[in-house]
Design brief:
Length: 164
C-alpha cells in the first residue's frame, strides 16, 4: 500500500471509532490465573493471551493492567492504535494510559477519535492519566485535553480501582 492509501485507510478507520467489538473481561482461565496469582501474573506479557478481534475497533481486557480495558483499532493486520483505560462511575472519573499509534498512521485522527469514543460512551466523567507525561507527549495531551473535563491531567486512581 502506498503511504497515501495507508493514511486514507487510517482516517476512514478513525471515522468508525464508535463501531466497537467487545470481548468480555477475561476468559475463566484468565480470571483463575489472576485470582491465584493476586494479579501478579497478569503483569507479565507472556502470561496473557492478547486478544485480536476481527473488527475495525475492539475493546478487550488490558494485557498490561489487570482490571483495565484496552481500546484498539485494527488496520491491515496491524494494531494501528491502542490505549488502556478504566472508569469509576462512583467517582465519575476516567483514566487513559499509554495511547499508542503506529508511526505510519500518526496524525490521521486515530487517537483523537479513540479518546472521543470513550468519552461519548462514558458521559459526565472527568478524564485523567496515571503517569507523568513524557516531554514529547505534552503537546499531544494539551491538544487532546482541550475542552475535556479533567484535561487528562495526571491523577492517581481512586480506591475503587486496581492500580495501573
Ligand atoms: Zn472511584
Amino acid at each position: 500500500m502506498a503511504d497515501v492509501e495507508e493514511r486514507d485507510a487510517a482516517r476512514a478507520l478513525a471515522a468508525q471509532a464508535r463501531n466497537v467489538a467487545w470481548a468480555a473481561d477475561g476468559t475463566p482461565w484468565q480470571r483463575f490465573l489472576r485470582a491465584i496469582s493476586g494479579g501478579r501474573w497478569g503483569r507479565q506479557p507472556t502470561g496473557w493471551t492478547v486478544i485480536r478481534l476481527d473488527a475495525p475497533w475492539q475493546d478487550t481486557p488490558s494485557s498490561e493492567r489487570p482490571g483495565w480495558r484496552e481500546r484498539a483499532a485494527n488496520l491491515a493486520g496491524d494494531v494501528a492504535f491502542a490505549v488502556d483505560y478504566t472508569v469509576c462511575t462512583a467517582c465519575r472519573l476516567g483514566w487513559v494510559e499509554w495511547p499508542y499509534t503506529m508511526e505510519k498512521y500518526q496524525r490521521c485522527g486515530l487517537a483523537t477519535a479513540g479518546l472521543e469514543a470513550l468519552r461519548l460512551e462514558h458521559p459526565g466523567l472527568s478524564w485523567h492519566t496515571l503517569g507523568g507525561h513524557f516531554q514529547d507527549s505534552r503537546p499531544f495531551w494539551a491538544a487532546a485535553g482541550a475542552g475535556v473535563p479533567g484535561s487528562y491531567q495526571q491523577r492517581e486512581t481512586c480506591p475503587h480501582l486496581p492500580e495501573g
